[in-house]
């Protein structure tokens, strides 16, 4: 699976945690927004339980934890348009493109290696 040339850039943020239960996912999204605000080309890779963040109609979590839908809606305003999703994780959770809030390019293990090599910096949350 080859990646489009728009996948190369300054920063790749890998989101591996679910939207609720910890602040890792929200912190990763915040880092991506801040980097983009400072002019960096940012790509996001949703892996493992991080793919759950893309589910439509995210609700608040236990104890009032915020959902991620509003933050995801802001990505385009910050020119964060290179979104990738781990195909294996999608299959593991039984998710399909029509269940996702935003369109993301499905990537396999080989394409993920390529993504890592195409970015100057990689942060994992």
Automatic annotation (TrEMBL):
Source organism superkingdom: Bacteria
Cross-referenced InterPro entries: DsrEFH-like (IPR027396), Sulphur_relay_DsrE/F-like (IPR003787), Sulphur_relay_TusC/DsrF (IPR017462)
Family of the protein in this entry: Belongs to the DsrF/TusC family.
Matches recorded under PANTHER family: PROTEIN TUSC
UniProt protein name: Sulfurtransferase complex subunit TusC
Gene assigned in the entry: tusC
